Amino acid sequence: MSNKFKKFIFSIGMFLIVVLMLFIIGEVFFRIFRGSPNPLIKTTQKQKQFLFEPKKDIHGVSSVEGEYDYIAHINSLGYRGAEVSSARPKDVLRVIAVGDSFTFGVGADDNETIPYNIESYLRSKSVKAEVINAGVGHSSPIMQYVNLKNIFINQEPNLVILLFDLTDLWDDWHSERMAVYDKAGEIVRFDPTFVDGKRSFWLTAVNYSAFCKYINDKIVRSFKKMKHLGLKNYSQAIKEKKRAKAAIINSGENISDETVLEYDGLLMMRGRDKKDLIDKQFVRTAKYILSIRDLLAEKGVPFILVSYPHGIYVAGDEWKDGRVTWGFEAGKTYDDYYAFELLANFANENKINFINTLPYFLENKKEGVKYFFDFDGHMMPAGYKMVADGVINNNVFKGVIKRFMPYIDLE
Fold first, then answer.
1. 57 shares its domain with 172
2. How many independent structural domains does the chain possess?
3. pTM for the whole thing?
4. Across residues 108-113, what is the average pLDDT?
5. Which of 54, 130, 253, 406 has a C-alpha 20 to 30 A away from that of 48?
């Protein structure tokens, strides 16, 4: 072996060692000094047997200093809230409230969530009720259907309420991409390292390495946005201190449907301007809602689908800061209710009990009361209370409860 070749091998070896050392240093730095930029990471599901690790409390802090700071207490069954037995007591009306982080109650204490408020109302009417909080961040009908089969149905509910969030359209698209199936075509789990049934080397690295995650979020995704917008438009957006994501969402017809889906988690809130794309994507979501309906029908369990508004529908000063990062106008109250009409028509056509709490919210909101956090966009306790009140004051809800307890006065 010549000296020249030995030097070459030595140089390659040294280069690899330096790269490895830089990676290790970067990994250690990001694990120690940089927390997750997304506080919802703590409220996502990490195992299929439980929504959350039993008896392990969750400390939720907003990514914006001072916006919210709360403790969520997790019971022995992995749900947020007070202890309940796995088997339903014979004299108890058990309701399971299924949903995402709004149902879970990000930004609120245990006694300020939507499920807790519904339970409190029922108990005030002398109903011995348990309303289980089955909310978990980023869940949507596809994941909720799987959880219903694997977890929720074991708690023997008398009633299931699905609190549908307008972000669920995107979450269904995203979760379906990372679903892992068995040979029978049934979903086994959701794996963030998979894309369309295949494991991705890069997503595996991103999922397990804090350093790779930072590179992906700050560099790889930036280059992808630059590619979609073009260097000129990307530079202009940065110069004007606009989010590149918002620029892509509002860039018009030159962006493909797939690209819009990738970046627009709030697609369903775009209204009639995006009607065709919303309708097309809702077919997927509708399939999983119907699967939930059918599974519950087999068990003889009533089902109610509930919708609620985000800040842009309530007032121009609600969710006043965070909305701009998603391309919504500052100070504007949006009155394009296409998403709610779509849900109402779907429910009517498929004989699903449906409650739209938006009208109740608009009719009963009070001047000077804040319902949504300015940046984060989740509801404040007053907002969660308003949604719960919109449910319990609706005749659909009262009618279902009356089936079990006709002698109870719910007025």
1. yes
2. 3
3. 0.91
4. 98
5. 130
